[in-house]
């Protein structure tokens, strides 16, 4: 990674949740592609910054599909 690469542009840790924070959604998504290739990661806002998290099955396949498969 170079200094110009968006994946290297994290701006430290979030004081609220201690996750790595990124200045923009674009930088967070670039970091996800670089750091976790082949996984379903998503960028979400926290204050004025962005974090990365794994996509849950209901986000990937839709709420209804997840609700149907988890009923007992």
Structure description:
This protein is α+β, with helices and mostly antiparallel strands and 72 residues long. Helices cover 33% and strands 17% of the residues. The protein has one domain. It is built from 3 helices and 2 strands; from the N terminus they run αββαα. A hairpin with a 2-residue loop joins strand 1 and strand 2. The model has no long low-confidence stretch (mean pLDDT 77).
List segments where confidence is low: pLDDT < 50 over at least 5 consecutive residues.
none
Give the SSE string.
Answer: HEEHH
Please count the helical segments.
3
The number of domains: 1
Structure class? alpha+beta
- Give the rounded overall mean pLDDT: 77
Characterize the main sheet. Answer: 2 strands, antiparallel
Strand element count: 2
Helix content percent band: 25-40%
Q: Report the C-alpha radius of gyration, rounded.
A: 15 Å
Oligomer: single chain
Strands of the widest sheet, in order across it, are 1-2
Approximate shape: globular
Beta-strand proportion = 15-25%
In angstroms, what separates the terminal alpha carbons? 47 Å
């Amino acid at each position: 990674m170079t200094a110009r690469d968006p994946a290297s542009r994290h701006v430290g840790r979030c004081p609220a949740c201690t996750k790595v924070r990124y200045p923009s959604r674009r930088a967070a998504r670039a970091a996800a592609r670089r750091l976790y290739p082949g996984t379903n990661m998503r960028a979400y806002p926290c204050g004025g910054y962005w974090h990365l998290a794994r996509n849950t099955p209901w986000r990937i396949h839709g709420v209804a599909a997840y609700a149907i498969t988890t009923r007992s």
